[in-house]
Amino acid sequence: MLVTFTCKAYADITMFGDVALDMLKMMGHSESVPGAILAGDVPAALDRLKRAIESAKAAPARNESEKARDDDSDEPPVSLAHRALPLIELLAAAARENCDVMWK
User: Fold this and answer.
1) Does pLDDT of 58 surpass 80?
2) For the whole model, what pTM was predicted?
3) 73 inside domain
4) Quick check: is 66 in a domain?
5) Domains: count for the chain
6) Nearest partner of 50 among 103, 98, 95, judged by Cα
7) pLDDT value at 63 more than 70
8) Average pLDDT of 16-42?
9) Cβ atoms 38, 60 nearer than 8 A
10) pLDDT score for 77
11) Cis peptide before 34 (omega within 30 of 0)
12) DSSP 32
């Protein structure tokens, strides 16, 4: 499943479903797709997402055996902070322009 976030102030952002649902939970929203955040609620959602990302950065990393079990390739994993960056930028633009954010 793919989830696409949209607002009038920024380009659409498409994420894998599991990552998008995690981001929605971090923003304090249900995992329901489709959904929306009203313009007045965007700054609070952005703040919650940023705080959750910072908390995740501070958490201890998984050990190598867990990583090997979850990952079949030699590619390094993409951090949660890097995955969240486009969504953080979309939310910041929506907050500046006072726009609703929707996802489907």
Assistant:
1) no
2) 0.81
3) no
4) no
5) 1
6) 95
7) no
8) 93
9) no
10) 85
11) yes
12) -
